[in-house]
Amino acid sequence: MPKEVRMADIAKRIGVSTVTVSKALADKEGVSAEVREKIKALAREMGYPFGLAAKRTAKKMGNIGILIPIGFIEKGRSFYWKMYECLVSNLNEIGYFGVLELIQSDDEDQPVEPRILQDEKIDGLILIGQKGAKYRDMLQKNARNIPVVFLDSYDITDGNDCIISDGYHGMAAVTSHLIQLGHKKIDFVGSLNSTSSINDRYFGYCQAMQENGLEFRPDMVLPDRIADGTLRIVLPDILPTAFVCNCDVVACELINLLKNAGYSIPEDVSVAGFDDYVVLGLGAATRVTTYKVDTGAMAQACINRLLKKINNRHYAFNLKVITGHLIIRGTTGAPPNKPSIE
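Structure for Transcriptional regulator, LacI family, as requested:
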């Protein structure tokens, strides 16, 4: 277990007395501005709490900033709101408060530092959802000594702590279910490279198709959104017998499109999703075959990781994958002209 940092350790490193360190950290007179900043910088580096952080440590409470891209809320993808509620509930149980800030689209392009970082009143930061490398780099730089954990997104080149669902094996399970029903022509619905989650799920689909000796080609991938993230699906000229969608929101949109075009689900076409999220206003959601993401376990794992980083600044980063399970509902069945499997 790492040795607890003391004022004496800071004093020894800089070559001053513990009294000088105490005054500097408490912003008392008798210490030059240069020495004060040097002491504070070293204290942050060594993980020694002072000022507001010290008060929170003593009370065993504090604030955790939670960032969510506004597009994931505005455009109906409220799966992340469900995840946010799990985070806040779990944080409250251990004496922390979740402070939400929505990331505006323009702020990502700049990129603009979140206000919760500017105010310097948080002990840790959680980013929910995918943001570009430029924005993530800005967060890591401006967070300074504040631990950061990424939830439901990752970049293996960043060296950051990330908590994700098992998109790869989950989508492989969903695709395998359709194959077991007798489907051979299965299209994937999702815009590749939009998010790491979509890519993971696509690769899981490819794996299941390949293992079963089935063909999968680039033209069997149906984009689900335009450049600004707005959902937009165009049905292919020749339909497959089944679709696997990167999330339940997309699955429900696709089902509505198919029904409006005169197709019956699953008699004519089977549709499966991912997440197990009930989409308000789209009644098909409660009946979609899907892979259930354990949002509660993801939220708890994220909090556990963040607390470890708060209490131990030298904690090593890693990627944690949270598994879920397949749920079979009424939107998948045997392909047309093939008897149902009892």
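The longest helix spans residues 295-311.
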